[in-house]
Specification:
disordered N terminus; signal; globular; alpha/beta; D-Maltodextrin-Binding Protein, domain 2
Length: 334
């Protein structure tokens, strides 16, 4: 156990460096979004800005639409650590054009990732299963648990945006003609449960999933190659639309995921803003961190503590030597 929670409060760093940094940074509100990767980033940002740059950092609850709207209209909060900008592109673009918002660095350097996946152990036995042609050829190797006479494709839960995209691609790939049944897992837990059960038993599984997620951090999966590359325009105009009548096969384009700040924060705290430009995770890094969170039933705060202690090789690349020294002093006082 640590002597006390890192993020609950630490001994003040040297008066000179703390005072100087606080003058240029001041109070900073950080949106603590209601999903694990965003909450982890928010807590990491709070720690680094508070103890590395002397900011008076505070977490406030957030979600994609209300946070982006509040930032654009009210200038609060100062930072949204993980903004999936496709969902609010028009609002973000308008805020940037009006000089109210600034897009800093990529939160996820790979972008959000979606696709159809199969377990790696299946591909190890038959490399053709890494392609959609191989999956279709061996459709009978993916029997439904409820009706072995049909093959199972696990789609996205009802009501999610990915239900539309997965359904349209299921149609475009002619998977029904190949013998597959599109199965609605009912919920995120149902989808992850179907995958984890199959993986633990080394059974067949084929379906939609996305990253970064704990599941893809715990289980080695292979994204099935459709052999088409990405047609972003068709994806946006047809695959992502419920009214798409003639869907064509395309891989999922990566979803841009950025750190968004207010223009005021960028202006008044340029050094702290520079940190938000550099702070980024690969999907592999975030998958592993999310898997750790799930295995340890950790919230964003506790996961951030673990990250700061055990992944200096990652976070030290985001800050200057002086800031790194400040952070190390804070860690030494735990």
């Amino acid at each position: 156990m640590y002597k006390k929670s890192i993020l609950a409060g630490l001994l003040t760093l040297t008066a000179t460096s703390s005072f100087a940094a606080t003058q240029s940074c001041g109070k900073v509100e950080i949106a603590d979004m209601n999903w694990n990767s965003a909450s982890l980033m928010a807590n990491i940002d709070k720690f680094i800005l508070e103890h590395g740059y002397g900011c008076d950092a505070e977490l406030i609850p957030g979600d994609t639409m209300p946070t982006s709207t509040s930032m654009a209209e009210k200038g609060q909060p100062d930072i949204a650590p993980e903004m999936w900008t496709n969902a609010v592109k028009a609002l973000i673009d308008r805020g940037v054009a009006d000089g109210r918002l600034s897009i800093a660095g990529k939160s996820l350097s790979d972008g959000g990732e979606e696709g159809f996946w199969v377990p790696k152990y299946m591909v190890d036995k038959d490399p053709s299963l890494a392609t959609i042609q191989g999956v279709i050829k061996h459709a009978k190797d993916f029997p439904s648990s409820e009706d072995p006479s049909v093959s199972a494709f696990y789609g996205c839960p009802a009501g999610w945006g990915c239900q539309i995209t997965a359904g349209n691609l299921f149609k475009a790939l002619n998977l029904k003609d190949a013998g597959f049944e599109l199965i609605d897992p009912g919920s995120s837990a149902g989808l992850s449960g179907s995958l984890s059960r199959a993986y633990e038993r080394e059974e067949a599984w084929f379906g939609y999933y996305w990253a970064p997620t704990a599941i893809l951090g715990k289980y080695e999966m292979v994204k099935v190659d459709f052999g088409t590359g990405v047609d972003t325009e068709h994806y946006i105009k047809c695959i992502a639309e419920d009214s798409c009548l003639n869907p064509k096969v395309t891989m999922y384009p990566p979803s841009p995921v950025f750190t968004v700040t207010t223009a005021d924060f960028k202006k008044r705290a340029p050094e702290a803003y520079a940190y938000t430009e550099k702070r980024a995770f690969t999907n592999a890094q975030m998958n592993a961190l999310l898997a750790w969170m799930e295995d340890n039933q950790a919230d964003g705060q506790y996961a951030a503590e673990n990250f700061m202690f055990n992944h200096e090789d990652v976070w030290s690349k985001w800050v200057s030597k002086d800031v790194k020294a400040n952070i190390e002093k804070a860690l030494d006082n735990l």
